[in-house]
């Protein structure tokens, strides 16, 4: 693939700005969901289930699960934006076709969309961090260091979602991705319990999945500790981002330029 076509230009920021401008019109209902959902999770699981679980990995269960919910929220928000919202712009609204009638290239559109997925993931995660802080579930001096990790995780999940969008012919196609990828990661990547409680084979599978590495970085940072093997976990998320971007660019180029 020609590198000049794959690498985005300044137009990616224009796409990001355009998406932000549209989202700003729906700011209130969007933020209500960002604050409301984590509140329900923390009350139902952190306090309800936490009453029976007690402590996990040396911390109250509400603290344990709050950091996991932050990571899973990045996955869910970036995935939803890269799937349903991006598909609407591409297929239903024909926004991508209109963009290609300008000097923007496919790489600009794709990079702008991936960046927007990461920003949406960051907005959702920060909302959860604020809510969890009121419960005392987020603490320590390293919380700000979690923000670049959240952005990196959002880039990886957004890139993967856009690969699916480039392949999709209808909204129904996304149920395969949620059922076969998003839901298993949500359940088996350390959000609700430590990975070492899984069978050895399941632990090995979980180590391949990006949410495992997002949780491994975010949980220590959000509970007052520095994570181990930072370069390894960040490297896996970066690899997912780059590989997904490459596949998405090729697939979108074939679809939009045919």
Automatic annotation (TrEMBL):
<dbReference type="GO" id="GO:0043190">
    <property type="term" value="C:ATP-binding cassette (ABC) transporter complex"/>
</dbReference>
<feature type="domain" description="ABC transmembrane type-2">
    <location>
        <begin position="29"/>
        <end position="255"/>
    </location>
</feature>
<comment type="function">
    <text>Part of the ABC transporter complex NodIJ involved in the export of the nodulation factors (Nod factors), the bacterial signal molecules that induce symbiosis and subsequent nodulation induction. Nod factors are LCO (lipo-chitin oligosaccharide), a modified beta-1,4-linked N-acetylglucosamine oligosaccharide. This subunit encodes the transporter.</text>
</comment>
<dbReference type="InterPro" id="IPR000412">
    <property type="entry name" value="ABC_2_transport"/>
</dbReference>
<dbReference type="Pfam" id="PF01061">
    <property type="entry name" value="ABC2_membrane"/>
</dbReference>
<keyword id="KW-1133">Transmembrane helix</keyword>
<dbReference type="GO" id="GO:0015772">
    <property type="term" value="P:oligosaccharide transport"/>
</dbReference>
<feature type="transmembrane region" description="Helical">
    <location>
        <begin position="142"/>
        <end position="167"/>
    </location>
</feature>
<dbReference type="GO" id="GO:0140359">
    <property type="term" value="F:ABC-type transporter activity"/>
</dbReference>
<dbReference type="InterPro" id="IPR051784">
    <property type="entry name" value="Nod_factor_ABC_transporter"/>
</dbReference>
<keyword id="KW-0536">Nodulation</keyword>
<keyword id="KW-0997">Cell inner membrane</keyword>
<feature type="transmembrane region" description="Helical">
    <location>
        <begin position="174"/>
        <end position="195"/>
    </location>
</feature>
<feature type="transmembrane region" description="Helical">
    <location>
        <begin position="230"/>
        <end position="252"/>
    </location>
</feature>
<feature type="transmembrane region" description="Helical">
    <location>
        <begin position="61"/>
        <end position="84"/>
    </location>
</feature>
<dbReference type="InterPro" id="IPR005981">
    <property type="entry name" value="ABC_transptNodJ"/>
</dbReference>
<keyword id="KW-1003">Cell membrane</keyword>
<keyword id="KW-0472">Membrane</keyword>
<keyword id="KW-0813">Transport</keyword>
<comment type="subunit">
    <text>The complex is composed of two ATP-binding proteins (NodI) and two transmembrane proteins (NodJ).</text>
</comment>
<feature type="transmembrane region" description="Helical">
    <location>
        <begin position="114"/>
        <end position="136"/>
    </location>
</feature>
<feature type="transmembrane region" description="Helical">
    <location>
        <begin position="26"/>
        <end position="49"/>
    </location>
</feature>
<keyword id="KW-0812">Transmembrane</keyword>
<dbReference type="InterPro" id="IPR047817">
    <property type="entry name" value="ABC2_TM_bact-type"/>
</dbReference>
<protein>
    <recommendedName>
        <fullName>Transport permease protein</fullName>
    </recommendedName>
</protein>
<comment type="similarity">
    <text>Belongs to the ABC-2 integral membrane protein family. Lipooligosaccharide exporter (TC 3.A.1.102) subfamily.</text>
</comment>
<dbReference type="InterPro" id="IPR013525">
    <property type="entry name" value="ABC2_TM"/>
</dbReference>
